[in-house]
Amino acid sequence: MPLAKFKFAPGINKEGTEYTAEGSWFDSDKIRFRSGYPEKIGGWEKYSSGTYLGTARSLHQWDDLGGTDYMGIGTNLKWYVELGGGYNDITPIRATTSAGDVTFSATDGSSTVTITDTSHGAVTGDFVTFSAAASLGGNITATVLNQEYQILLVTSANAYTITAKDTSGSTVTANSSDSGNGGSNTVGAYQINTGLDTYVSSTGWGSGTWSRGTWGSADANAENLRLWSQDNFGEDLIGNPRGGGLYYWDTSGGVSSRATNFTSLGTASDVPLLVNQIMVSEVDRHIIAFGSNSISATSVLDELLVRWSDAEDAGNWTPSSTNSAGGQRISSGSYIVGALKTRQEILIWTDAGVHSMRFIGGPFTFQFRQLMDGPSIISPKAAAVAASTVFWMDRGNFYMYDGAVRPLACSVLDYITTDINLGQSYKVFAASNPDFSEIMWFYPSSSATEVDRYVIFNYKENLWSVGTLVRTAWTPAPTRTKPLAAGTADSSNYIYQHETGYNDDGSAMTAYIESGDFDLQDGEHFVLLSRIIPDVKLTTATGSPTSNTTVTMTMKGKNYPLETASTLSTSTIETTTTQSEIRGRARQAAIRIESSTAGMTWRLGDLRLELRPDGRR
Questions:
Q1: By three-state DSSP, how is residue 283 classified?
Q2: CATH code assigned at 596
């Protein structure tokens, strides 16, 4: 009986049915393609045991002038600087009360404490730190009160509640002696308002959830998912929560210091108060705000206005004949979705097209031109740059820009666009993995509210693959050894180092690839399959295969395209396997290679099957 070689076209093809994908790979998870052949992706592990509060949707890694390695982490609750695996809270303080403005009241038998502070400006979920408070007289001691709290519920513009706790985080219940008010010296330091962990599509006044904003604060294009933009201004870090202010963290103050508003800088002048995104230009180091209030309207966010500071000066935003500060309103669209810095150019996406922003020097500083009308971007973070090319995802297509805007031919486009939760589209983000020539997009599937899927584009080989993974932010971490990503495990938030080993944070990672249906003898005859000769390279972390260094190879068969496939054979392939016996009869077949063993990886070669015609029906 003859052996037939089955060589599948590289990449995943899900644009049609399993039958139209004949000769191709149809489905995968935790798989990449390299030199045309599929292999299991690299593993990951926690970067450190430390955790942080909130969902991280922005990671920015940089070094200071002394070579100290930092990473900024923007979450919906906090802003952190990571150093040596520790997460240091640099969240800015928006307001500090005068002594005695804050008072407390407690009820016997309850752990809920009510705080009174006129016009506190807080929203439910905000953080406040009390100091100089006195004991209420019983269990609610000064030590209990004088620490950071997350606000349990805002009950009015002048009051809110917290849950009393001791310094270890255990709940404290008031007793009948807790009748004081905390004394006349209490000070409350309020951090900037927290953001939501979900996208709420705004349609005007009242679109936000109760107590999430001030009266009438919503606007037609607002979104309240907390997205940070970050960049380094020299050795210092700048950050902006979308729709909020501009903040500056000076490395010279150390990781125990908090970031401050740009308005506190010594040269502060006409600093934007409402901004959607910021970055630092490559030439002359201007800080650029994309979507900003104008100088004359400090309380109104113009979502098409681009403003920039004077060169090398984060504080001075007042245009004059002696500096290069300025602004320009984009001419098309209703709002700027996002912007991305590439080599000596910045791309700006509005809801109606793509624009270019280039440094040209005085007197205009920057030049703007529209690159294409129509294509937009699905979210502010859905673009990444690699090999001097920008790649991005829109709602209905993928695009690239290397001097001209072009759509990417995508063999999994229909699969993605029909199984994505567009209601949470602002959670979509792009990630670069340059060591493997990959751009990845992470997105929430139609049945999920958080990111749970990814698609990989190998731009060197023009190949696509798909899979499942929960990640919320990514950085290629150019001055570190491996990429870093934000994720969650056991309800705690961690940073993970990727392309490390072969496991899912110490546990086995399940990876598979499955072919489309392929005809046996062109589907005219039934075919008897009797033997399979595998070609798989198996590798362990130690380099020494064990009895567990295996993959499972499953042959499926069916007689008609709409028929449910049945399993013809399941074979365990080891490093010593030469062949596997099959006894199966079908018109068409598919093959699936899968592994779920810790400490090993694999790379697939070509497949040979022994088969012969077995009659017609």
A1: coil
A2: 2.60.120
Handedness of CA 170, 174, 175, 179 (dihedral sign): positive
Query: Measuring CA to CA, which residue among 57, 78, 205, 221 is closest to residue 213?
Result: 205
The tokens of 142 are what?
Answer: 């000064």
Both tokens assigned to 599? 């400490």
Question: Is residue 596, in this structure, part of any structural domain at all?
Answer: yes
What is the token pair recorded at 60?
Answer: 């920015």
Number of separate domains in the chain? 2
Phi-psi region of 49 (alpha: psi -120 to 50; beta: other; left: phi over 0): alpha
| Cβ-based burial of 605 (10 A; exposed 0-12, middle 13-18, buried ≥19) | exposed
- Report the candidate in 450, 381, 457, 390 with the shortest Cα–Cα distance to residue 420: 450
Domain boundary among 174, 191, 208: 191
pLDDT tens column, 124-162: 999 999 999 999 999 999 999 999 999 999 999 999 999
35, two tokens: 């030199």
23 and 107 in a common domain? no
By residue count, the chain amounts to 617
Residue 45 token pair: 């592990």
**DSSP result, 478-526:** TTSSS-EEEEEETTEEEEEEESSSSSBTTB---EEEEEPPEESGGGTS-
Q: Which domain holds residue 124?
A: 94-191
- Read off the pLDDT of residues 493-545 as tens digits, 9 standing for 90 and up: 999 999 999 999 999 999 999 999 887 666 566 777 788 888 999 998 777 67
Residue with tokens 């584009």: 457
Q: Which residues are within 8 A (CB) of 317 and not within 5 positions of it... i.e. 6 or more apart? A: 269, 270, 271, 272, 295, 307, 308, 309, 310, 325
The DSSP secondary-structure symbol of 436 reads G
